[in-house]
Design brief:
- With 323 residues, the protein is an alpha/beta fold.
- It folds into two domains: 6-113 and 198-318, Rossmann fold; 122-184, Orthogonal Bundle (Histone, subunit A), CATH 1.10.20.
- Helix content is 52%, strand content 10%.
- It has 14 helices and six strands.
- The chain has helices spanning 18-28, 54-59, 76-92, 104-112, 122-135, 137-147, 149-154, 160-173, 177-188, 213-229, 232-240, 257-264, 270-293, 308-318, and strands at 6-11, 31-35, 62-63, 96-100, 202-209, 298-302.
- Strands 3-2-4-1-5-6 form a six-stranded parallel sheet, with helices on both faces.
- This is tRNA dimethylallyltransferase.
- Keywords: ATP-binding, Magnesium, Nucleotide-binding, Transferase, tRNA processing.
- It catalyses: adenosine(37) in tRNA + dimethylallyl diphosphate = N(6)-dimethylallyladenosine(37) in tRNA + diphosphate.
Amino acid sequence: MSGKPPAIFLMGPTAAGKTDLAIELTKVLPCELISVDSALVYRGMDIGTAKPSKDILAAHPHRLIDIIDPAESYSAAHFCTDALAAMAEITARGKIPLLVGGTMLYYKALLEGLADMPAADPAVRAELEAQASALGLAELHRQLAEVDPVSAARIHPNDPQRLIRALEVYRVSGESMTAHRQRQLAESSGADAGAGGHLPYTVASLAIAPTDRHILHQRIALRFSQMLEQGFVDEVRELRSRSDLHAGLPSIRAVGYRQVWDYLDGKLDENEMRERGIIATRQLAKRQFTWLRGWSDVHWLDSLACDNLSRTLKYLGSVSILS
């Protein structure tokens, strides 16, 4: 084992059972939890994000949940700053940081560092959002393919936040996001992301998901229906009542929220909203799988197995995280 302190990443697609396993681990290991989820950071967005209940959070606190208002933006850079501070605090007390969630970009940024991207430009961002509204995301994806085909191949055509950001980087700096990242990789001279890269920790990476993708799709559909029964529409209605929130904000573009927002705007009927919300969640899970397939040194667990805790402990022992 290196001289770096240990940390555990528990990744996986949405509805795979990450939180349940993470809580089980805290009962047998000196771990403290850090959420890695771009939606759980928002206060007042509880049902549609499948945020752990108040009772669970009281018994098993998660850092980086409920830290900003939905009117604010939260980036991978913000996450890295907050996560590193939390990890240092946990390590200083002799505990192990256990990072759990499905926002894969945040994990990657934490491991490899962030390329020196230009800051957001409100005027350029507003112009791109207007184009997206008037011409559609397919047109933005076509524009991105012309100037940055590598990013266009990586970014899903229906992912407005990342499409707009990639085009914004090009328009502000005159260089593609790919060019920025290639320069960063050259400067890092091949740091090993799987072993921790720029991160000053020895990282054990775990991923949990059902081996049968059909089972995951069933879980996603069931959870979305349960969210609606729990008052998801009323939650979004409360957000819509605020004058400072609108459909273009990252918080409202979160999976599920934008579909319910469109329903309340009269753009979708109830069945269409439900169907599109489930489809969007499946697409999110597919993107999460795509990230994980390219992840080095990840140990997979089957959500349906009954012995994931013991399997996890065995793996952590084999990579000297527990020594």
